[in-house]
Each structure stands twice: as structure tokens, then as C-alpha cells.
From TrEMBL:
Single GO BP term: amino acid metabolic process
Matches recorded under InterPro entries: ArAA_b-elim_lyase/Thr_aldolase, PyrdxlP-dep_Trfase, PyrdxlP-dep_Trfase_major, PyrdxlP-dep_Trfase_small
Example of a GO MF term: lyase activity
A Pfam family of this chain: Beta_elim_lyase
Protein name (Swiss-Prot/TrEMBL): Aromatic amino acid beta-eliminating lyase/threonine aldolase domain-containing protein
Keyword terms of this UniProt record: Pyridoxal phosphate
Source organism of the structure: Trichoderma asperellum (strain ATCC 204424 / CBS 433.97 / NBRC 101777)
Domain Aromatic amino acid beta-eliminating lyase/threonine aldolase positions: 49-420
Cofactor: pyridoxal 5'-phosphate
Family the UniProt entry places it in: Belongs to the beta-eliminating lyase family.
Amino acid sequence: MLPDCHLPETWRAKMVERIPSSTKDQRQEWICKADYNLFKLRSNEVRFDLGTDGGSGGMSDNQWSALMRGDSAATRSPSSYRLQEKVKELFGFTYTIPVHRGRAAKHALVQALLNEESIVPGNAFFDTTRANIESQKAIAIDCAIEGAFDIYYQHPFKGNVNLPELEKILQGSGSNVPMIMVSITCDKTGGQPVSMHNLREVKRLAKMFNVPVILDSARFAENAWFIQKNESEYSSQSIPDIVQEMYHHADGMVMSGKTDGLVNAGGFFATNNKDLFDRVGKYANLFCGLAGRDMEALTVGLGEVTQQEYLDDRIRQIHRFGMRLMAANVPIQQPIGGHAIVIDASLFLPLVPREEYVAKTLAVELYVEAGIRGAGMETVIGGGNPITGINRNRSNAKDFLYLAIPRQAYTNDQLSFVANALIQIFERRFTITRGLYVVHEDAILRYLTIQLKKADGKSIA
């Protein structure tokens, strides 16, 4: 059951930040100078930034108050103990390593566990997670369920792990699988959740082959909300109780606090396995850490993000935005996920050749139209393979434009403006026939630095 999408936000602003205005001519000039790469735009050249929901949300009054009691002593600060206690209370893990951001925890984890023969299966890996795995010359394998990338396929848990595929990998390469990593919710499929039943079955298979399960937990609370709404046996359970059970089926977690921690910086690794804790800590202690003030804000955020009223409001805003687009027949991922609206760019712009980066083409159109930054998730997102190199494009099942909604930052009216801009482009979609081509790209995470040009005038191969 979806929340009532007509209710207003449950928060109010105590401080405002002026949003920069610009003209279409200015945006045309800026995106050209940025090599048609939206990640190279300056933030003051963007009106509404939906390129990520990480670290760009609004913190609560209680979090800002907590910052003031942050203790940044070199060791054993009260702030670190308060964070450890909250992690133990919420997730059931005794050992915690605070880090400055979630991908730092992932980097320490893969250094501790992976080698060139390692295979890491999961539901569908986010780009930086895959890059961390492949930095060790290991192989990351997506085990998404059939239909996960089909926007019209109706399944309440399109983030689930494909259990037969996972079992096949474990049977064939179990000795080379140092961990299974499950993203909750699944970012790559548009914030699609993983069911409790699926988590339970993943753990059962992992236990058979003595492989630890690590939950990539950036949006754990939103995942718990979907379990509460879509698995009948959990409909009367509280979010914290559901979270406790979710992590009962895991051996550890990596967490970016910039999403469901409701903070602008920070994250952690946590586990009950002392040996794993020591191995990860060996690498994390070389380059990781988190200021006491940020630990305090994260501790408060972990409590606030699991409140029912907050989650109802959060998901309601995403669904209201998505339903506005669906009413105009814009092709978006369904069911609507927990933190983002994902548009099938190939269906949105049917005349643009797929090899001309149709998702990035749509992202550029949206920016020029209204100053909105999104992220094109397509062949360009993953970068080169560690074995075959940069020239191997990885064709995703779909070319998606990803619009991530920061938490407690934009109002419903502002998102209606975004929806209207998309609808205007959709109405003139048949006038857009050419896309972009690559001038330069890097081997790893190439979407951050890629240089593109318009394909107008370039012959189609």
C-alpha cells in the first residue's frame, strides 16, 4: 500500500539557500565547456541537482545540535562510542570502523578480502562498488532477477538476488568467492528493494558454502519500509525491528552515511566477526577516519531515518513525483523505488541511436531545458574491465537516466517543476534524433571525466 501522495511535507525550513538562475543560452555554453559531461558542471551552474542523493540532503535541528558536542580526540572519543552503541542497537553488530565516506569502507573491505582470482556476486553493483572490486583485479558479477531492468515488469522486490544464478556461481567457483555483497536498496535498478525472504535465502546459500554476506547499506531504512509494506508478515512490525532481522541475515555491512544516515559526510564498516574486523581495520586505519562532530550527526541520523513518519514522508515524495510522470506516459521504472526516478532513455528518445549515449543525451537535454542535473546510467557508467581494458563497453540491459532525490532538500513544487520540464522534452521527443560521441575517456569510473561531443553532422556507422 502506497502512502497518500497528496499530503504535504512533514518538515519545514529554518534556513534557505538561494537557487541560482540561468538562461538556456548560458546553459548551452556551460555544458559545451563541460564537454557535455554533467559531472563537470559547477554546482552554481545547476538549478536542481538530482545527480545523486548522497550528501546533498538537509540535516535536522537535532543533528545540527549534536554537531556541537562532537569530540574529535585522537582515540576513544565519546562520539565514537555513541556511534558504536547506535550501530549495535540498530544492526546488532559489535565492531564498528567509522570512515569519512562509504566507499572508503568498501575499499578497505576489498583490500582485506580480494585478490586476482576473487569473484564477488551480488544483486547489481553500483559503479563505485564495482570499481573498488575491480581495483583488486577481481570480478564483480550482477545476479539481478529476470525483469529487474524491464521498467514495466511489476515485481515488489526488483532488487532481489537471482538465487539460482547465485547458487550456480557458488557451486562452480565457491572457493574463489570471498564474499557476497547485496545492495539494499538496489541503486542500479532505481532504488528497488530486496525482500526479507530473499535475504534469508541468500544467507542460507552463503552458509552452505561458508561465504560471508555483506550488505551494502546506503538505503537500509528505505528497504525496511518496502518490506513493511509489501511482505504481509511484517506489516505490523516497526522499522527498527525489521532492520534488526535484515541484519540477522548478514555477516557485516558497509554504510554510506550520506544517504540513510542523513548526513553530509561519513560512513562505517560493521560486523560481529572479530577476525574480519581486524583484517578490514588494518587497511581502514591507513586512510580512514571520521571527525567526532560527524559521528554525532550520524548517530542522530540513524535514529531519525528509522522513524515511521520520516519514511512515509520520504517515500511519498518520490511516489508523487513518479506518478506525475506516469500520468504523462513518461517511461519510468515501475514500481517506483525508494530514492530515485529512473527513466528508460531509449524509450523516451526512440530516434537516438543507442551507441550515441542516449541516456546522457537525455540528461543534457534536461539540463539545457531547465538547469536540472541527472545521471545517465548506460554503457559509459561502468568504465573499463580490469582484464580486457577500457575498450570493452559493458552494455547495461537498459540506458537509464537516473534522477536521485536528496532527502529533506527539495519541495514537492520544485519536483513538479522537474516533472514539467521532462514532460516538455517528452512531447518534442521525435525532434531529437542524434546523441553524443566520445572524444576522451579514462579507464576507471570514466563517466566522471569523460569528454563528449554532439553527434550532429557525424555520420552514423
